[in-house]
Amino acid sequence: MRGRFFTVFALIGLTLPAAAAPRSLDALFKGFDDACDYSEPLGTLLQSSYAFARKEGSLSVPSGYEGVFGPPRVKPDKEYLQITLPVVDGTWRGVPVKEIEVYITELESGFTYHAVVFQPDALKAAEAAFKARGIAAKKKLTKMDDSGFGWDTGFAVIDGGPRYQCDLST
User: Fold this and answer.
1) By CB neighbour count within 10 A (0-12 exposed, 13-18 middle, 19+ buried), where does 144 fall?
2) What is d(CA 154, CA 118) in angstroms, rounded to the nearest whole number?
3) Which residues contact 69 (CB under 8 A, 6 or more apart)?
4) Are strands 95-105 and 80-92 parallel, antiparallel or unpaired?
5) In 41-67, which positions are buried (b, 16+ CB within 10 angstroms) versus exposed (e)?
């Protein structure tokens, strides 16, 4: 009887669909950790998030990434708008991504901050994948910032959440 019980469960297990692997977002984020060099699809997504947050347009998710993002959220935060683009099930360099976080001002200005926020339980993996890359990218970005705006990039942990960020505010 016990053998039949396990055989039935084994057969049921064979007929259940396998869980889909998380979607790699490496192509979308290509260059983001190299002195904030945005891929065209990421740039389009972020620009459309500004229009969405300011109620001037809709969010434009790049082709092939339609199922990756949950509904965007916009929340006022002092003089800024915080835009959150939740990631349903994706990874960057193998690290599970929680969301893309964007800060802009309500009126168009030179203030732009973007971060890829990783799942909190992926802190060690995120640090291993991005800490050294962030240090190298910061040095490169500082050399490129000949205007002295103080651009910033790199790996950080804010309120327990690991992230890779780019602040290109002018």
Assistant:
1) exposed
2) 13
3) 61, 85, 86, 87, 88
4) antiparallel
5) bbeebbebbbebbbeeeebebbeebee
Cβ–Cβ < 8 Å for 42, 28: yes
| 86-125 core/surface letters (b: 16 or more CB in 10 A; e: else) | ebeebbbbebbbbbbbbbbeeeeeeebbbbbbbbeebeeb
* Block residue for tokens 């500004």: 50
Cα-based distances in Å from 136 to 25, 27, 114: 21, 20, 18
For the chain, give me the number of helices (H) and strands (E)?
3, 7
Q: Is 37 left (phi over 0), alpha (psi -120 to 50) or beta?
A: beta
Q: What is the pLDDT of residues 139-166, one digit of tens each?
A: 999 888 777 777 899 999 999 999 999 9
The pTM of the full predicted model, rounded to 2 decimals, is: 0.85
Beta bridge partners of 83: 74, 102
How far is the C-alpha of 168 from the C-alpha of 153, rounded, in Å? 8
What's the rounded Cα separation, in Å, for the pair 104 and 51?
11
Tokens in use for 72? 């965007």
Query: Is the predicted pLDDT of residue 48 greater than 50, yes or no?
Result: yes
136 exposure class (CB count in 10 Å sphere: 0-12, 13-18, 19+) = middle
